[in-house]
Amino acid sequence: MSQAISPELREWLVSQLAAGHSVPALRASMRAAGWQDSATDLALAQLEAGFPHLEVAAKTPRTHMPGPDLEGAPLYIDAGDRRVQVLHTMRHPRVVVFGNLLSPEECEGLIAAARVRLARSLTVETRTGGEVLNVDRTSEGMFFERGENDIVSRLEKRIAALLRWPVEFGEGLQILRYAPGAQYRPHYDYFDPGEPGTPTILKRGGQRVATLVMYLQEPEQGGATTFPDVGLEVAPVRGTGVFFSYDEPDPATRTLHGGAPVLAGEKWVATKWLREREFK
Ligand code: PD2
Ligand code: ZN
CATH fold of 76-275, please? Predict the structure, then answer.
């Protein structure tokens, strides 16, 4: 995944962008020279940090999105250290349900490390850019730093391989616990462009472009992840996960989704949000 970015390459990218070449054209040249798209994206993200006037993001039409390689309708995908099952796919919204994404030991390990750090869930507040207690989410949660422990680090690499998106573009893993009666009312995961706090949030990695919700512990009843616009309900089966992406921050993506109330037992999930650029 990691290819070093030399000063020469950086200089070449700067000159190409300054000359008005598009990001897709650069990506094609880089690919022809043997670079992975993820390395190109990382180089562009690093460039943008140093040369904001180049407006790399503004030149990037959101054509390159995270997602698994479904070419040839595979039943399994090699995610580096694990053979992940493709259980269900949908095109609009883009939804993919994965099986065998985490081992039972990984699920247990994440729960054990998170349990001692749980607090009533906060969400990023687009009105101010701060965090607030959200009445729509009655679960408890916490965030791991990226690469915080071995399980987190291993899982992040697996997700990067599976979804073909650099580890550096992902937020830290969020863990949520839903007790009986807890739910997460339908919402969008992208930041509302109309809210005044959104530009502040976007400075750090740009928009969210995709979500992967992974089920660590299944409740006895209830707790599906629902997509009300398309009548889809994903059962929270341990070790599986649901991926969905949104190429613009707009309801037209049909990615309205929620966590249905848990009726019995406890549901635990891990959520990985992917940004359009490096999330520092
Ligand atoms: O736990 C869920 O099923 C769920 C539903 C909707 C999680 C999220 N959203 C999220 O973490 O954004
Ligand atoms: Zn969500």
Answer: Jelly Rolls (2.60.120)
